[in-house]
Amino acid sequence: MASTLILSAGTAAAQVPIDPADYVPADPAQAEIGRLLFFDPILSGNRNIACATCHHHDFAGGDGLPLGIGEGGEGLGTERVALAETPVEKRVPRNAPALFNLGHTSVEVLFHDGRLSVSELYGNGFNSPAEEWLPQGLDNIVAAQALFPLTSEVEMAGSPEENEVAGAAYDRIDNVWPILAKRVRIIPEYGDAFVAAFDHIETSEQVTIVEIANALAAFITLEWRSHDSPYDRFLAGDEAALSEAQRRGLDLFFGEAGCAACHSGPLLTDQQFHALALPHFGPGRTRRFDPYARDVGRMGESDRLEDAYRFRTPSLRNVALTAPYGHNGAYATLEGIVRHHLDPQASFDEWAEDAVALPDIPWVAGGDFLSFQDSRERARLRSAVDLEPLELSEDAIADILSFLNALTGETALTGRLGPPEAVPSGLPVEVRR
Q1: What residues contact residue 222 under an 8 Å CB cut-off, 6+ apart?
Q2: CA-CA-CA-CA dihedral for 253, 141, 133, 202, to nearest 10
Q3: How far apart are CA 82 and CA 96, in angstroms?
Q4: Residue 190 φ/ψ region, left for φ over 0, alpha for ψ in the -120 to 50 degree band, beta for the rest
Q5: Does the structure show a pLDDT above 80 at 1?
Q6: Fewest Cβ atoms nearer than 10 Å: which of 68, 162, 247, 356?
Q7: 344 φ, ψ to 5°?
Q8: Phi and psi (nearest 5°) for 160?
Q9: Cis omega (within 30 of 0) on the bond before 17?
Q10: pLDDT tier at 264 (50, 70, 90 boundaries)?
Q11: Residue 289 banded pLDDT, cuts 50, 70, 90
């Protein structure tokens, strides 16, 4: 981690710049393979959805939706619609997070509930939903996380009656990956590229899901590095990089407003879990014994009652571009989520179902707000708060928002390589309509 610590006048918390050297290594040739695979629907069960469908440049590495449509949808981002001929069984349970700086060496936990973390618990480098079935040889946590959407029925795998990938996932999670690896390596362009880019691969038959995941990780690590914002220039010594309002917002953020208590470090996240009384809707990550669709957050992974309704602190890099906000996209605007932090319980009480613009899926919409409408679940959600109310003036709120906009990098929407025009499988690369 970068050793430089900066204290701006009036701030109480240290500011840690991003050091460009503090990223995991990423081979450019492997990243180019990963770029093609990231946009190639070949990795989905029905060959109709790619990683980029929910993590697209045009939407700052996300999809712009509160809860997205994975399998059974068509289109990108806010234009994506559910297809009646291949009915969506449920919404994607949580908001698609942006991918900025996932390759930073400080990142040790991923997903909203932290169900993937760096660990030797299972002898493969990670504590993950795949437990001991996660393959050996993954380069880093970015490679590990790339494997799980491939196995999700609602994200990329599809239903068991539709394809062998989804059926394999029902047998055991690691049965999915050899099927997808074979799909990729028998395509000559991919096979030759892997042989050229990976020293230990001599023939295409040797390509496994490990090489595919490592290639995806190399792309994600290179493509979404982001340390070229006005704030970064300010930390590098350019005091003119921030406006007066942004400087005031910075002082509030790291001082009186207390934002840096959780949003700290080079990525502006403590990588810990906090409860904010965010209203629940949609399917959530329901456990098998839950009485209805809800989302208990970190507790679902840790089985610790004190973790109920806690979710991982997101990085704030490029936060002005990554609406909607919250683990389920409950707030459509940056101002909305900032105001929620000031008094979570009051904000919870004021929140109404029409505050969230869920994609129109008539056959699942009836269950969207069942748990939110249950008085006992509402009471549990409302009581789970790790923040004390804080009063700030309207001018102070405006200054904090101004500072948060100064976290937007110049290359945030373009990346470094960008989308390819075509992919080796010959399947279509989705573009906005």
Answers
A1: 26, 28, 31, 103, 416, 417
A2: 170
A3: 17
A4: alpha
A5: no
A6: 162
A7: -55, -40
A8: -55, -30
A9: no
A10: very high
A11: confident
> CA-based Rg of the chain, rounded to a whole angstrom?
21
On the question of pLDDT at 431 being above 90, the answer is: no
**14, 265 Cβ separation under 8 angstroms:** no
> What token pair was written down for 106?
């400080």
Cα–Cα distance measured from residue 166 to residue 186, given in angstroms and rounded to the nearest whole number: 20
Q: Mean per-residue pLDDT for 202-225? A: 98
- H-helix or E-strand spanning residue 69: none
Cα 334 to Cα 341: distance, rounded to the nearest angstrom: 11
Strand partners, 23: 104
Q: What is the pLDDT of residue 3?
A: 40
Task: Name the band, by pLDDT with cuts 50, 70 and 90, for residue 433.
Answer: low
336 burial type by CB count under 10 A (0-12 exposed, 13-18 middle, 19+ buried): middle
Mean pLDDT in residue range 70-76: 94
Sign of CA dihedral 285, 288, 289, 291: positive
Q: Is 198 helix (H, G, I), strand (E, B) or coil?
A: coil
Express each pLDDT in 370-427 by its tens digit. 989 999 999 999 999 999 999 999 999 999 999 999 999 999 999 999 999 999 999 9
Q: With contact defined as beta carbons under 8 Å apart, do 402 and 243 qualify?
A: yes
What is the rounded CA–CA span in Å between residue 324 and residue 426? 33
Query: What's the chain's length in residues?
Result: 433
d(CA 278, CA 344): 8
Beta strand pairing call for 126-127 and 116-118: antiparallel
| pLDDT 10s digits, 39-59 | 999 999 999 999 999 999 999
